[in-house]
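call fold(seq) -> tokens
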Amino acid sequence: MRFSRQSLSEMPVIGYLLRVGYSVLKLPAMWADLHRDVNNLHRTVLELKDTPGAIGKFNGMLTSGAVAEHSARLTDHAAQLQEQTHELEELTERIASLEEAWRSAAKAEQSEMEELRAQIRKQSGQIAMLMEENRARENAPERREPAAAVHAAAPIYLGGGRVLVQTEFGNPLICKSQDIQLTPALIYQRVWDPELTRFYQSHLKPGMTYLEIGANIGYFTVLAASLVGHHGHVHAFEPLAEAFTLLELNCRLNNYSYLCELTPKAVGEFDGIHTLHTFEHNFGSSTLSTLPEKLLAEFNEKPTAEPVSCTTLDSHYAGREITFDFIKMDAEGAEPLIFAGSSAFLERCTTPETIYAIEYNPQAILGLKRDPGDFIGHLLALGFQVGKRQLSGVLQPIRDPSELDEWCNCELVLSRNAGVLAGCR
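ret:
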């Protein structure tokens, strides 16, 4: 059986392999035919040699063309063998080429697989890191920031010296436009005392009862109400009449009046009437203390005296069944007076786990003829653990009054439970 010549490059590999395989299978039969023809020729020659008239017979065979036929067959077989040998050589070369291509493809695939594995390892590491960060956030103290904070409204001047702003936690507040402390901060940053705000968001929980002394217009009062929720309670004291009016407005504006108990009084050591020194532009710095001239020069403003009603925590909460979880005092130096009038309150209305956030104002304390160091010593003697809140949020333990600056204000965090204080940030 003969095949027409066809270029190997044009022949499908499988078909080509089948053709060559068929030719290889035919080789034994072709060799057998060739061997048989040679044997027949040899026998014929021997017979002619021993037979009379052999020469004439041999000439007759030559004339008849028998030898020519055998010769043609031999030539044909030889040509087929040569052709198939050539095809086998081409097949060997192509197989070698295919093997090389396969090795190159395998090498490229191996390289791609290694690169893919590297990418998977990298992404697995990133996923593990994100999962760890997510677990850390889940275990961290809860911070609730309403979606409304994302879309802050522009400040609006309402007239009458009042401006409406929106805090970063989404609550609107009416502020005094002439104030140069709280109002500018809320207009430009929408947050007042960011570190203390974060502290509130970390430690005030739904259902807690909160007390604030020196509430001003209610920035922290409203924040606390949003955090303790409708199962919680908020109590706030503010002696300055104008500030108390804004405090009430802001609680109503945010629909928190139902859970807020607001009292228009100062808190101190005795019940009665006291003199409050007020400021038009440093609105939140109103104080019962007589401030030093150096500090007044920093304010660039002289105070105005205003009589206000004062109560004590002992008398105000006498006979009431209430326990506070979080107490904030920002009374511009009156903190020693507050603690002096709250021995029964501390016994009945607080627990060792109660957290206190207190502004320490040594110059204002001196203006009330009290010693700042004695005040800190008194707190330590009452069993309070005292920590100074750093800007980073870390609490620096205070074990001696000398560790605090005698001029600069700072924020103190107190608790009679060392474990609670250790967890405060």
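Residues 1-9, 141-150 have pLDDT under 50 and may be disordered.
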